Structures
1.
Amino acid sequence: MKIGPKVYYRKTTGEVIYITSQVESPWAVETTKEDDMGFYPQLKGYDPEQLDVLKLEFDKYTEDFRIAKSYWINPETKQIEFVYPPKDGDDPDPVPQKPLTDQVSELKTLQDSTEAAMLALMDVSSTS
C-alpha cells in the first residue's frame, strides 16, 4: 500500500506546521488527523480547530519540495504553493506559485489540444 504525505498547516495563515512522511508498505495504515496529532510531537499542543490538513498523493510534488525555497498552503484555495529560487533576471523576491509539476502538466495538456486543433484544421483545409 502507498500512502502519500499529509501537510498540516494553520487554517488562517497557511503556514505549514508539519509534513508527514509518505509510506510504502504492505502494512501501512491510513491515519486520521486525531491519530497524527496524538503521535507526532510537532503537532502536539496545537488546537485541532486551528489546523487543517492537505493529503497529497504518493510521490506528488517530490521534485517541487526538493527544489523550492519555501512553500505554504493558500488559505483561500487550500492548495499548496511553492516559492522557487530565482533564476538570473528573475524578480529577487519571487511570489508563491502553483507547483511546477502542475504547471508542466497543464502546458502538456494545452500543447496536446493545440496540436489536435492544428491537425483538425489541416484536415479541413486539405479536403477543401
2.
Amino acid sequence: MAFVLILFAILAGMALPTQFNVNAQLKTIVGSPIIASGISFIVGAISLLVISLFSSGIHIKKDWLNAPWWMWTGGILGAFYVLATTILMPRIGAAATVGYVLVGQIIISILIDHLGLIGATTQTLSFPRILGAALVVIGVILVQKF
C-alpha cells in the first residue's frame, strides 16, 4: 500500500508543473492570468463535482456550517497558488517555479509540523530536518542557475 501512496504522490507532483504550463499557455489565449486561473478552477470544480456525485453523492450536513472559518480557506489558497504559478511559469520557467514553490512548501511544512498548526501532529524540529530543507534550497538554487 505504501508503494501505491508514494506513486500517487509522485504523479500528483508531476501534475503540478504540467498544470503550471497548461495554465500559462491558456493565459496567452485568454489574455489574463486571473481569467486563466479562474477557468482552471471552474473546470476543476466541475470535475470534482461530477466525481463526487458519481462516487458517493453529496450529502450536506449541518456540521459543515459549524466548521471554523479557516477550514473554508483552502479554495482561496488554491486560487492564489494557481494564479501565482500561472504568472511565474512564463517568466522564470518550469524548474524555477517548481523549485521555489517546493522551497515554500518545505518551509511551511516544517513550521506546521513543529508547531502543530492546523491540527497537524507535532514533529519536533531537528537538525536532520533543517539540513534536509537546506539541501532542497541548495538544489533549487543549482537548478535555477544551471
3.
Amino acid sequence: MANPNKLEIIEPRTVWIGEEKAPVTIVMYGDYESEACARAQEVIDQVLKQQGTAVRFQFRHFPLTRIHQFAHKAAEAAVAAVQEGKFWEMHHLLFANRKRLGSISLKSYAIEAGVKDKNFIPKLVDSVYGWTVRADLLEGVDKGVRDVPAIFINDQLYSGKITLPSLTKAIQELIPVKRKRA
C-alpha cells in the first residue's frame, strides 16, 4: 500500500526534449550558475533547432556548490517545475538569470515559467527536491563527471569543444546515412 504522506516526485531523468526515437541523445550535466554551462546550453539549443528529429536532449543537475552557493537551490527549483510540466521554461529562465538565483528570484522565475504551486518556497526551504538533485549529481560522479558542462552523446563523454560546428560534426557522425535507391 502506498504511503499517503509520501510525495511522489517526477524526476528530471524522465524529461527530454526531442523525438523519443531520435538516433542521437545528448545529456548535459550542468550547473545553473555556470557561465560555461549557459553557453553550452545556447549551443545545444542551436543544435536542437538545426538537427530537428535527429537529436534528443536531457539536462541533469550537477551543482558545483563549493563555488556556486545558489546552484543547488536553483536545481531544486527546476525539479519543482518538473512537477508541473514546466521544466524547460524554468530551465531557460534559470540560465538567463544565473547571476540572480536567490529564493525570492527563484519564486518569480517559477511564476514566470507557469508554476502554480503555492508551497514553492516552503518546499525549497525544506529541500523537498534536494535528494532528487543529489541523485543526478551522484549519477554524474559515477559516470566520471568532475566538472561542468559535461556532455554525453549517445552515452559517451564528449571531449571536444562545445561549439556549434564541433557538436554538429560529432552528431552527424552518429546519424545513419539513408541510402538512395538507384
